[in-house]
């Protein structure tokens, strides 16, 4: 008998009965992409759900990041974090900008504001922080630095769908915020992404940039790409939107089980919920102290896999540790000792809405039995 696999994530899937009417209507309309009915409807519904003024849908989050920097017409250096998925820094380099990597906070794993200002030069044009695992960055400190030096702020909010700080969406921070709707995220459109902006003028500019720069059928006014979300993705997103609150509630219950069970385990540190924050529980990272726990992070990772628990080492290696980035003269790399320590000791335990109590207890028992 095959042992059940417990994965770190599973996509939020609407039932076929819920999805079928959308698909039938798309077939009847014969409009599959290019700002169709469901694309427009999903933008409206997401604005209402997320509490934002304007949202521009994309075929994926990476193209959203690339287009956001293009829209702000940046030139020079962008200060960002080495502790993220490579889409963050790749998007900088794809715009012929220079990523400047600085260290992170040990408690939140987010970009440390105290390191930002020291990295600013006369070439700095923007700050690109990441809400790591959906935990909000220190927005006030980052914005104060940006205002002082006249810099743009673009938030990589790939993990931060629905996250609020003091009852306000974190997506309203900065000049632009970017979401990912990849299937591994809490909310998905299979593939997909979005840019949140504050003005209709910027929304219209983004709409042009993601559609080759077309102003009208016979006029192109800027250099754009093809980054449009199609109607199937939009319909999937609409069908999933009604499920997301229940999914987040279930994730919260899983997080509570992990925290309570692992609280007294020596050498295991869980990230705490931040005060005043409505979390979406996208991930459940823990830090392993091998001296206290008696086993390294990598050894625990392998033991979990032997038991069909497919945990992940997000984010390992650091962006700056990848061969492409090592000694890359098109980047600037400041000391990242904190980020490196986190990267080498973090493991994300399974966290999704389909985990049963038995699944969670299995993971917990493996971790405890290895002490």
From TrEMBL:
One of its GO terms (biological process) is polysaccharide biosynthetic process. SUPFAM superfamilies: PLP-dependent transferases (SSF53383). Gene3D superfamilies: Aspartate Aminotransferase, domain 1, Type I PLP-dependent aspartate aminotransferase-like (Major domain). The active site is at 185 (proton acceptor). GO terms for molecular function: pyridoxal phosphate binding; transaminase activity. It comes from the Bacteria. It holds the Pfam family DegT_DnrJ_EryC1. Keywords: Aminotransferase, Pyridoxal phosphate, Transferase. Belongs to the DegT/DnrJ/EryC1 family. PANTHER family: PROTEIN RV3402C, TRANSAMINASE. This is Aminotransferase.
